[in-house]
Amino acid sequence: MANNYRPNKLEKGERMMKVDQSQLLRNNRWICIQMEQCTNRALAPLGITAIQAHLLFYILDHGEEGTSLTTIHRTFGYSMATLSGMLKRLREKGYLRVEHCADDDRRKHLFGTEKSQRDREGLERAVRRSERQLYGCFSEEELRTLDGMQQKLLRHLSTLTEERRKETTQS
């Protein structure tokens, strides 16, 4: 895939122009793709992808009580079919165990295995190494600013999602 990143730089003497929001959106998409690929490369020796690692960390964080496919779907926003495939691969690699819910045989609880507990530290080290590479060009102040802007955008997206949900419910 070709690099579609185009910085919006001002040449000397140029006046401040309106931000090209379409380009900003494309750049954000490109950044996400590149970041995921970088993390995938860091995790490749461990035989797991970035999204699989994040799903596994989420499941491991739920410890003894486990979690469900529906809960993961609501948290991450991926389709149930996509999540089923990713979780199936984690199960095949020995990172995940599935138990039927006692009160509803259709529902399943997901738990990490001993292997996932054992490998967690190495997975986390690989992810942190990738993060250091990705964010190494920023100062602490710049990272705080970026974090604040991302949090603001996430809150806004959450509001938009809730508004859309209400509109759908009222229709």
Write a short abstract of this structure.
It contains six helices and two strands, in the order ααααββαα. The protein is mainly α. Strand 1 and strand 2 (104-112) form a beta hairpin.
Index terms:
171 residues, mainly alpha
Topology:
Blueprint lengths: L20 H23 L6 H12 L7 H8 L3 H13 L3 E6 L2 E9 L1 H22 L4 H31 L1
Antiparallel strand pairs: 1-2
Structure description:
This protein is mainly alpha-helical. Helices cover 64% and strands 9% of the residues. The chain is built from 6 helices and 2 strands; from the N terminus they run H-H-H-H-E-E-H-H. The protein has helices at 21-43, 50-61, 69-76, 80-92, 114-135, 140-170; strands at residues 96-101, 104-112. A two-stranded antiparallel sheet has the order 1-2. Helix 2 crosses helix 4. The longest helix is centred in the last third of the chain and has 31 residues, at 140-170. The protein is globular and about 65 Å long. The N and C termini lie far apart (41 Å).
Mean pLDDT: 89
Number of helices: 6
Low-confidence stretches: none
What characterizes the major β-sheet?
A: 2 strands, antiparallel
Assign a percent range to the helix content: 55-70%
Number of strands: 2
| Strand arrangement, major sheet | 1-2
Q: What structural class do helix, strand and pairing data support?
A: mainly alpha
Distance between the termini: 41 Å
Percent strand equals 5-15%
Helix-strand pattern, N to C? HHHHEEHH
As an assembly, this protein is: single chain
Radius of gyration: 20 Å
Shape: globular
